[in-house]
Amino acid sequence: MKKEMRYLVPGDYMADPSVHVFNGKLYIYPSHDWESGIPENDNGDHFNMKDYHVFSTEDPMQGEIVDHGMVLDTKDIPWAGRQLWDCDVAEKEGKYYMYFPLKDQNDIFRLGVAIADNPAGPFIPQPDPMKGSYSIDPAVLKDDDGAYYLYFGGLWGGQLQRYRDNKALESADLGQADEPAIPARVVRLSDDMLEFAETPRPVVILDETGQPLKVGDNMRRFFEASWMHKYNGKYYFSYSTGDTHRLCYAIGDSPYGPFTYQGVILTPVVGWTTHHSIVEYKGKWYLFHHDSVPSGGRTWLRSLKVCELEYDEQGHILTIDGGGE
Ligand code: FUB
Questions:
Q1: Is 40 one of the annotated active-site residues of the chain?
Q2: Catalytic annotation present for 12
């Protein structure tokens, strides 16, 4: 279905929106794209982002979008190498914790934490990455019982294929077509929000027969861009299929899954990547995402968008037309 769309930050390139309601406002935490001149490749070297801005609004479709300015810069992160990709923020007891992926000085993606007293930042980074962290695209769920869960992982440039059972492999392994797909990971956060409280677990997505989706099922299997939200007490895990450019979702009864594949949220947009968050605000549901229309299709220069999202009576998300292929 076609939806009314709004570009949120027409004056700059922003992508990968993570959106939450804090203190009655919507806060948007995007990646900050820019033209660094690095040629496009399958490792995503052209996504050479180096800082974050925070935005807020009280009306995502019509209202003012306030830019709170730059809130974290790679030059302030002691362990920084390059490439500040998709982040997310969680609130606990009046503090705000930003989780961000960044390559270290050995060009390995790790997850870092930065802390603020205010949802609009600035965020002060911890001196080291989270112990045992790897890959990209952290997304946090604050569950109704007060536990916090971090979802993460991404293939290809996101380096997830370099790990099995939370250990680094000697060489990357994307698996064979008939093997279970490489899953995203989920881990409960420690009470101080700064570390993993346990060993990360696989986010298993099952097909309609109860079997895990396979490596070769690239129209449906997980690639990157995890998001978790709850609707009518169920856990909705949503993600990008990467090389088939869809946002899909799967439903489960626990934050750890397993999840059963349901369908497509957003058909391909203009640009290679697709990425999103889903949030309820003032009684409506919204899909925040990005595309590369304003940059003329340059996939590393993406623009933030929002539209409303709807469910049917059974809790299925109605598929939205992304306007791409
Ligand atoms: O923005 C860089 C990467 O592109 C993100 O981490 C992925 O999810 C994709 O959107």
A1: no
A2: no
Task: Give the three-state DSSP class for 158.
Answer: helix
Q: Is 317 part of any domain?
A: no
Q: Is residue 167 a part of any domain in this protein?
A: yes
Domain extent, residue 94, equals 6-309
Residue minimizing CA distance to atom 4 of ligand 1: 273
Residue 236 belongs to a domain: yes
Is pLDDT at 325 greater than 80 in this prediction? no
Nearest to 8 by CA among 283, 229, 289, 292: 289
pLDDT digits 0-9 by tens, 2-47: 999 999 999 999 999 999 999 999 999 999 999 999 999 999 999 9
CATH number at residue 235: 2.115.10.20
> 86: Cβ below 6 Å to ligand 1?
yes
Half-sphere exposure of 102 (CA within 13 A, CB side): 30
Count of domains observed in the chain: 1
> Cβ contacts of residue 312 below 8 Å, gap of 6+?
318
* Ligand 1 atom at minimal distance to the Cα of residue 275: 10
Mutation probe of ligand 1 site: the residue of 14, 16, 18, 42 with most atoms within 8 A of C-beta: 16
To the question of pTM greater than 0.70 for the whole model, the response is yes
Is residue 316 included in any domain, yes or no?
Answer: no
Q: What is the mean pLDDT of the chain?
A: 98
